Amino acid sequence: MFSRGFFLGVLWAGLVCPNLFAQVTVSAQIDTEQLVLGDLAHIQVEVEGADGSARLELPAVKGLSLTQTGPPSTSSQTMVVNGQMTQYQAVTFGIGVGAAQPGKYRIPPLVVVFQGQRYPTQEFGLVAKPGDSGGVMTLTLKPNKTKLYLGEELWLTLTWTLTQQVEDYEFRLPLLAQKDDLHLGLLPLDPKTPTQDLSIDAYRVAFNRSPVGMGGVKYQTGFRLSPVQPGTLDLGSAQVKGQITQGFVQAHDFFGRLVQRPQLKAVYATTPPLSVTVLPLPTQGRPADFSGAVGNFAVKALVERQAYQMGEPVELTLVIEGPGNLSKVERPKLRGLEKDFDFQENLEPGTLEGEALRFKQKLKPKAPGTWVIPPLGFSFFNPQTGAYQTAHTNLLTLSVAQGEKLRDDEVWGHLPEPGPVASSVGLLSTEPESQELPVWFWALGLVLLPLGYAVARLQARRPKPVALRVQAPWGPKDLEPLRELPPSEAFSLAQERLSALLAWKFGPQTHLDGDSLDPQTARNIKELQDWIEARLYGSAAELEGEQERLVRELSQLQAELTRPQGAG
């Protein structure tokens, strides 16, 4: 027989976790089985008996892109009929389906995962056919190369050409869903050509806008990305759906008056599916000091001057420049300098200026004389030749003087040598002189002794000071340049500052959903990361006026993360 505790446990579980005994049912439907290239089909998945913790797994189908169109919507309802309480709750997912090329497709079952159980939907069939461009628009997505080495940057040019004005449009680029994995960014636009923002998926992207033919217009922008593994990289296709006016029809307005309304026609444009081949870097001939730099670089060494005084630091600047992915270039090794110079290797990242990356290092000569900074090597892989190369800096010669030695009386704070001590008899007595302390000295001691004891007791009761933490990587004053920089550069620098602050506070492997992090702080950090990231894909016009908010948000987060534990 079951004990009373068993039944109480079952009752408690039913009240606290109603989903534990709720029946989960999954239903799914697609709005069309005929898809026009450039348009989307929509699948809706409804899960009854589940809450917001349910998640959806989407299958991978070659030639199709399946993306969740937003967060799932939840609904719940409680009804009491004749004393019987009924609870209903459900979760609904929306999925957009796009095709890259014509054909017949089979979409395997989508899977809902809830409380450790998997609930599949039925499979779907879909036929994709070319869309009609109406002869008014074309769309191209062109890479700068179809074969590249791992570590190289790939550049893509997206061009949308119109010969007639469109009333509305929907732009899609599935590549943006991989922006984090591929380190996707925008290429600089032509500053001499006007720009205009267009919406692509959930992002505002700046395009150069130029006239074409008689009343036509061409929009063009560029993306840069870095493949992270060798093999075939599928980039999908770009798609756009537009509405153009084809004549007018008669209709009645709200007041019953006869009016002319434009008759709209949907037109479509899509690019062929794009894929590139990513080659691995060869192992043969790889130098021991190779750190992953891929490009065609030159390197040089600079100092402020050739003459120094002993003890004066020498600031050495190493400049790496040339076409290539400078974001992956590491600091060259300072080999051969330990014998003649004292230094602690500077671990700060280099400063990127156009196509040049600068690293700074302070050196201190160990002795006066003429010293040589020998050529320093920097190894990289040159994709143009398909081989590794090592570039060397120029030789530098330094003259280090001993410096003039100061006399004792020129040293600040120097005390003169004491003169002879005279005695009353002209000789120094070897016997200690007997001195009797005055009465007031003893009286003062009797007063100060208990007072000193009381002060010592008060000091002992005071809370001990908290040990000083390692200084944060930056403070509020370091955010002032964000107000003066161009908006795009300000948000890029802000992203670097935020990453440095989080690494200092939580370590490089910290996850924002960890148990050691306050949930509200984690949400604040995530929202700030998403906001900065979204603005990085925006236009300069969209970023105007946002820099003040950027400084304010970063300052507040820095103050929160550097506040001592227990402080209010």
Automatic annotation (TrEMBL):
Asked if the Swiss-Prot or TrEMBL record annotates the protein with the keyword Oxidoreductase, the reply is no
Q: Which UniProt keywords apply?
A: Signal
Q: For this UniProt entry, which residues form the secretion signal?
A: 1-22
Keyword Signal in annotation: yes
UniProt-listed Pfam families: BatD
Going by the entry's taxonomy, the superkingdom of the source organism is recorded as Bacteria
Q: Which InterPro entries match?
A: BatD (IPR025738)
Q: Which PANTHER family match?
A: BATD (PTHR40940:SF2), PROTEIN BATD-RELATED (PTHR40940)
Q: What is this protein called?
A: Protein BatD
